[in-house]
# Entry
Amino acid sequence: MVLAVAIAVAPAPSLGGTPNRLVGVPSSLDVVSYYPSDAGWSEMWTDWQPTLLAANFQQIAALGANTVREIVQPSVIGYPQPSPVFLSRVRQFVDIASQNGLHVQLTLFDWWTSYADLAGAKTWARAILKPFAGDPRIAFVELQNEIPVTDAALTWARTMIPFVRGVLGGETPVTVSISGRDPTTRLAELVAGLRPVRPDFFDLHFYGGSGQAAYSIFRRAKQLVAPTPLWIGETGYSTSATVSGFPAVPLTASAQDAAQAHFLATVEWAAEANGLGAAGVWALDDFLPSGVPFWSGQNLPVEMNFGLYRTDGTPKVAAQAVKASFAGHPPVDLNGGFETTVEAADGTTVPAVWGPSGDGATVASDTSVHRHGNSSVCVTATGGVAGVGSLIASPSDGGVATGDRVEVVAWTRLSTPSALSQLALEWMSSAGKRVGTLHSDTLPSTGKQGWVRASVTATAPIGAAYALIHLTAQVTDGSVWFDDVTYSVRRAKAEA
# Structure
């Protein structure tokens, strides 16, 4: 079930004109973070390519975004007094964005830790921001990307947030972002450390795993910062074939492309369902190794493959998922009909977004048997002895709160009476710990033939953050098929 969330968005500007100020920031933000694929991080400023920026900004606008993120490093453009050349490039970035119908998220003080130098920080920030005071093209200013929650950094932020707000004339929102493995703990530390000082909204960056805990984490984060608004300013999933955030999903290009789209749909649904608007996306393009500073720590395969587009310019599946999310409709397809397939490591075809595994049995897509559509998934014995095959997935809208009522249905077919199949619903905490499991009856029952319906209905217990769906088959000979898996949820009443 998708919760509809209304988002107020300013009228789209005409290309070449000055965009109207966005209303309802942060809920109206649709943001893509940006560096050129061949000139990432500091390289963008030293290898300045305005024509490429214009072309890439057209791509961003075509995704339905209304804002592009501009990240500025003091060490590159000059500190405490920026170089006139680089200052002109900062302003040209905004001009090019505006010409392509985009606002700008201006992120300051990247790669900077001199928190004791308040005088220098003020000089630098004033030089960057003064020309943009009252400028509606600037959607908001992010004081620093993923600020550490140390005494020095928080003391600095308590001074700089009101200072930056003053330089901007009080018309442009100011925020500061955090990230980390335990983002709600870091967010609580940020809120406490800022004391009475508050940004116009808090910015949480979310990464990790398959995104399944996003709904619960965002719900908690929203409570932590209230009444100040919350925004999920950065999220993404790497399609590198070196690591997977999804249990058992193959480390192949097609499987990880599908996983990226599923991750982003999961996070975008979680943001929308919590009334936060669309999450900001990292990043437009994958990066070429030659375009990443070798000393930056960003030149690892996992870091260079977060893009919605490959380095050759071709879109990944996730580009359409983001476009739908920016339009207010995050895709929540579970691929329960197993129609969308990807390649496994051994070259076989398996269902996208499902994690297959087998012990004495193979798990593969099958177009010769299906209840509906053109495909099912099949578990087949391989060794003449009892084997087990299984699949696991979490719906994009699988995030839950205590008391939510969930129903999962799957259809199964067995070729021999000795085969067994079962559906299970597993409750997981936001930390990925199991807090409950419920199984269907073992199928099929005596005397039933053809496709048999299995179902599990359960109420989310205390501590449950999301649901996992398990399909399991035990085979000695022959095969077991699954098809038409559906997931639905009835939400408990909202907390007062």
